Amino acid sequence: MSRPRRHPAWRWLAGACLLGATGWAWAQGNTPPATLPLVIGQGPGGTSYSVPIQTLLFFTALSFLPAVLLMMTAFTRIVIVLSLLRQALGTQSAPPNQVIVGLSLFLTLFVMGPTLDRVYENAYKPYTESAISFEEALARGEAPMREFMMRQTRQSDFELFARLAQLDAGVTVENAPLRVLVPAFVISELKTAFQIGFMIFIPFLIIDMIVASVLMSLGMMMLSPVLVALPFKLMLFVLADGWNLLIGSLAASFST
């Protein structure tokens, strides 16, 4: 007597999954592909882009933030002066690079505070309130930054890059393109930073010369003058309230 054949349950489950997958594929094939709107509209105020495109533009602009920080703010002068101070003191890693960069960033925010406030009030805030277009916001945000760079740019440096760019004789620093103004501003910042660094080096160089002369006269030629002069440099810098003098002079140098 033969037993009745039993169909395993997994065969029914496999068939149901196959039918479900076929229906899902058919539904997907009849669904029109989604499209990403690039432009919402155009009007007298300019072109209005969709949110995904605005997000893409924002992150693209964010990638240029380090270059803007280095080339269009007070960061270059401050970080170079602090680095030269460390070399003048003779300390190889004190303060460390992280401290120098962090202090330079906060001093840059302090110096650039009025300029950044104007950018926020005139450009960013109206743009977030949909009062102006993206292009107008860029133009309004450029004006305070341009004014800051113009105050710190030497005329000789601007004339150099204007001549290299073959600009017309009537072009001044007020209406010059950024491709000319920005490098002229950076060169001026480097010159100013080196001038401040020269003034910082003088007292510490005198201490090095005095210590080296004393050690030579005592016949201690095997003793490093740098090691002996380091505590005297630190004592002079602390007693003269060097941090207040240096930071105050740096901040005041941008007000002219």
In short:
With 256 residues, this protein is mostly helical.
Please, could you describe this protein's structure?
Plays a role in the flagellum-specific transport system. One of its GO terms (biological process) is protein secretion. The chain crosses the membrane at residues 56-85, 97-116, 196-222, 234-254. This protein is mostly helical. The chain has helices spanning 9-29, 51-63, 65-71, 75-89, 97-111, 113-128, 134-152, 155-164, 178-217, 225-239, 242-253; strands spanning 39-43, 46-49. It has a two-stranded antiparallel ribbon. α4 runs antiparallel to α5 (97-111) and α4 runs parallel beside α9. Residues 18-27 and 29-46 have low confidence and may be disordered.
Low-confidence stretches: 18-27, 29-46
What fraction of residues sit in β-strands? under 5%
Number of helices: 11
| Cα-atom radius of gyration | 32 Å
Helix/sheet category = mainly alpha
| Strand and helix order | HEEHHHHHHHHHH
Q: End-to-end distance, in Å? A: 111 Å
Tally of discrete structural domains: 1
Shape: elongated
The number of E-state strands comes to 2
The neighbouring-strand order within the major sheet is 1-2
